[in-house]
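Quick review question:
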């Protein structure tokens, strides 16, 4: 375990029906959580249900949000410059619904929806501006790892975030920005990174933060590992000195397994 309070995220991705979400929430509520922060990210349509029915200490995250001002109340703030982003959900709306967290820069957003480093950086700064806590995902492809580019890729992803946060007034790292290191080759593949690979990247991310942001931020920033984490492999990873939590995809859809993963830190 690292420096900060352990934090586990559950990314439900584009999964679930009204009925399955209800069951999963019941399973989560029935689990006993130790001293840990837990953030679950249902699809937008189920955010309200999750907010209403998940008990503390569970908190809720959106899986994405838009980067430009979006209309919150069209009857009071009609402005033709805002809101013309069909299909998007704005940070303002998440703030309005008191959704405390948002996941940004997931590799599926970067790769399937062509979100660039700069775009993700802008989103992070915009979400922070609206007071949202952010889990920002970084990570390399297998090809990038094999050609020795892992840290170049990750540092470029981090730099785009750091630049935008610096440039945007009233926006900051605080302890509300969590970094999720998710090697793309380990996501949904059952191929978990080795403890050595995880510790190596996490320590380098922390050093980058110390060198490029501040010592304070490097200490306060929690770094999660994500990529095929399950109830069987989480304990070994949780012991690593620079790991502050997990971001879990597949296994977060099974209530019992997810609760086990959340409790690994203790
Ligand atoms: C993810 O998508 O963030 C993830 C880590 O997925 P999985 O746990 O299924 O590999």
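Suggested answer, residue by residue:
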């Amino acid at each position: 375990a690292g420096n900060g309070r352990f934090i586990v995220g559950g990314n439900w991705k584009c999964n679930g029906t009204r009925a399955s979400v209800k069951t999963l929430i019941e399973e989560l509520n029935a689990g006993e959580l130790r001293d840990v922060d837990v953030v679950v990210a249902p699809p937008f349509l189920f955010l309200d249900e999750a907010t209403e029915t998940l008990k503390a200490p569970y908190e809720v995250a959106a899986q994405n949000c838009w980067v430009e001002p979006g209309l919150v109340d069209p009857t009071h703030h009609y402005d033709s410059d805002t809101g013309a982003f069909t299909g998007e959900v704005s940070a303002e709306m998440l703030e309005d619904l008191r959704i405390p967290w948002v996941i940004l820069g997931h590799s599926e957003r970067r790769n399937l929806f062509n979100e660039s480093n700069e775009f993700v950086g802008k989103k992070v700064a915009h979400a922070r501006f609206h007071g949202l806590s952010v889990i920002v995902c970084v990570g390399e492809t297998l090809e990038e790892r094999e050609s020795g580019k892992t840290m170049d890729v990750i540092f470029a992803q981090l730099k785009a975030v750091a630049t935008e946060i610096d440039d945007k007034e009233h926006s900051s790292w605080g302890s509300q920005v969590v970094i999720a290191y998710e090697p793309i080759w380990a996501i949904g593949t059952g191929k978990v990174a080795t403890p050595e690979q995880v510790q190596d990247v996490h320590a380098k991310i922390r050093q980058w933060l110390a060198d490029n942001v501040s010592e304070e931020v490097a200490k306060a920033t929690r770094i999660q590992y994500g990529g095929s984490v399950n109830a069987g492999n989480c304990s070994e990873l949780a012991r690593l000195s620079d790991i502050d939590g997990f971001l879990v995809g597949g296994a977060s859809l099974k209530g019992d397994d997810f609760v086990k993963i959340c409790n690994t830190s203790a």
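Why it works: The first strand starts at residue 7 and ends at 11. The chain has eleven helices and eight strands.
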